[in-house]
Design a protein that fits this description.
eight-stranded mixed sheet, 11 helices, globular, alpha/beta, 8 strands, 278 residues, single chain
């Protein structure tokens, strides 16, 4: 599927994940995650809201494992760079925590208060902080970054950070030009041509670290295509990483996999750490 052949109306609908599943479904799913995340944060309040920069949202939530050298599951939340929070998505660490891993979730300033350039700079600062301050807070193992939707894009962009060992990009968009004319995204994000060129993973040299890419087979066709295309782009350069279709999952239900210790996506995260150690 080539977004360049779509009309503006078609393009806007092609990447509107909330409309695809229905606003009520998306809201209920988000409320479900938020409730589960609230429980986790209340049970483990010791390392929440640790500032990595000056900003209301530029903070880490850390969930260290018993073993400081255990791998660390990092999750970058989605919401098309304009919605969401680490507080809503903490429960996605459930699967990794159950396997004895540490977990960490960074917040970041949202559009329109921050451009995509600023968001990526903030998250680079976040990983700088984790590299220097994580061990003192019980997180000293290899970092496997996961991210969903906008977070999937950010996972691919941040793969080159020295602190990042490997990544799992979940249902991301990897050529930002596809969103240039989509009001539900760009009215707030306001992508520039320079950002499209310098922050689109499909337009950048591939990073020589493992990056697995996953999508739900029940997602929008354009969302499926962008994941497949990005995996093919990396595979052509002989870069490591699997393409993982999750059968019947839509853009929202795919995240349920991360909450389960023995699910396909949790196993994929574990394998990324094993691949690094091999």
């Amino acid at each position: 599927m080539d977004w360049q052949t779509m009309s503006l109306t078609e393009r806007n609908l092609a990447y509107n994940n909330v409309e695809h599943v229905g606003p009520d479904f998306a809201r209920k799913k988000t409320e479900e995650w938020a409730a589960a995340s609230k429980d986790l944060r209340e049970k483990r309040p010791q390392h929440l809201n640790l500032a990595y920069a000056q900003g209301e949202r530029t903070k880490w939530d850390l969930y260290p494992a018993t073993d400081p050298k255990a791998p660390c599951f990092v999750h970058i939340h989605g919401g098309y760079w304009q919605r969401g929070s680490k507080e809503i998505f903490a429960c996605l660490a459930d699967g990794a925590l159950a396997r004895g891993w540490s977990a960490a979730l960074p917040g970041y300033t949202l559009a329109p208060d921050a451009s995509l350039t600023q968001i990526t700079k903030e998250l680079r600062t976040a990983f700088d902080w984790l590299a220097t301050q994580g061990a003192a807070r019980g997180i000293a193992g290899p970092v496997i970054v996961t991210g969903w939707s906008a977070g999937g894009h950010l996972t691919a962009i941040l793969l080159d950070h020295p602190k990042v060992t490997a990544g799992l990009a979940i249902s991301g968009v990897f050529d930002l030009a596809a969103l240039r004319d989509s009001p539900h995204v760009n009215d707030k994000v306001k992508l520039t041509e320079a950002e499209i060129e310098t922050l689109s993973p499909m337009r950048l040299p591939g990073v020589k670290k493992p990056l697995s890419i996953t999508y739900g087979t029940g997602e929008l066709l354009a969302m499926i295509a962008t994941s497949r295309d990005f995996h093919a782009y990396r595979a052509q350069a002989h870069l490591p990483g699997d393409l993982i279709p999750v059968v019947a999952a839509n853009h929202f239900t795919i995240l349920d996999e991360l909450r389960l210790p023995n699910s396909g996506l949790t196993r994929a995260v574990l394998q990324l750490a094993e691949r690094r150690a091999a």
